[in-house]
Input
Amino acid sequence: MSCSDSSNIGFFHGDSPAPTDASTETTITAPLQPTQAVYTVVNTLEALKACLDDILSETAIPPKLYSQARSPRRTNRGYGSTQMQPISLSEPTSIPSPLFNLPNSSPEIYLDAEGISLSRSGELSILILHIETAILLKTYLIHVHVPGRRTFFTKTTNGRHTLKSLLEDNRLPKVLFDCRMDSDALFGRFGVLIGGVIDLQLMCLATQNGGPKHLPSLGRWLSTALQMTMEEHHRIDSAKAQGQRIWRPKCGGSMQRFNDTQLHPDIIDYCIVDAAYLPTLFATYNAALGNQVSLGRLDYLWPKVGCSADEKECLDWVAKILDESRRRVLRALEPCFRGGTAQNLWWNPHDEYDNGGWNYY
Output
């Protein structure tokens, strides 16, 4: 995106001052949202505990699926050590019928991260959690740089959960757009391996039968899939450009601004502008996939007997999305992983795709 001057229209703030209290809630009007939304900058442990209490009280945590169950098994790795092994399921018919009646509700947690050279060798400065439930619509900007490692190990009021356990819980679907560098930074810096990931970039590619040769940016998918007015496009471009002038060296900024104790309003806008659209983008592409994208739609648990050809194709793509989402997260465990490639592994050279005009990474 260009670093050139844009108008003074802030994406959310306009000319209003930045909040002064770490736990202050600020009312914003998010585009494509029919109601008022709220964001909170979290940079104290007390505010973090309140944040987790809110999320866990309003987020539906389903029971573990058979595929998510683990049974401890003693190994030869030393005294008392155990290795968690998945329960083996040989026949789909052995699954109780209620499992097949699981509702395909929309995910309630949407994630993004910002930082200095975001990776295991860089720094994760801000973790963005956008929560969208039936009664809660809020974006939390967790300023990881301030509390440091304690961010992920501070317990909730009841002492049962931490941010680490929330992120690692594979019952809770978490939507990210290209999770590779986010998961690499979370695991490499803090030992957090995200569970229940649905990679929205893969959903976008699946609806294009694999997509173009190179991976388009989130901005490209937004402009392609969502019907926005010129004003909405301008507000997004303005927020991104103003934020880049603060942190991007080529635009005269500094990445260290992500670590400012008091975040600049333009940095806040930059962080939440994409997260505000993730639920709408998920719903759009999930509809194109027959509303089948769910952690419960595991290929070896859901027989395709009686499905039409179109339904079977959708379920095949859903299985590929979930499988590749897990693979992307697990790449954070690879010693030689140095970042995601812009090459699309699902690209089919025999498809008649015109790659001109796509925005690549």
User: Anything to note?
Assistant: Residues 30 and 276 are 7 Å apart (CA to CA). Strands lie at 25-28, 37-42, 70-74, 82-86, 109-116, 123-132, 137-143, 174-176, 197-199. The chain has a mean pLDDT of 75. The first helix runs from residue 45 to 58.
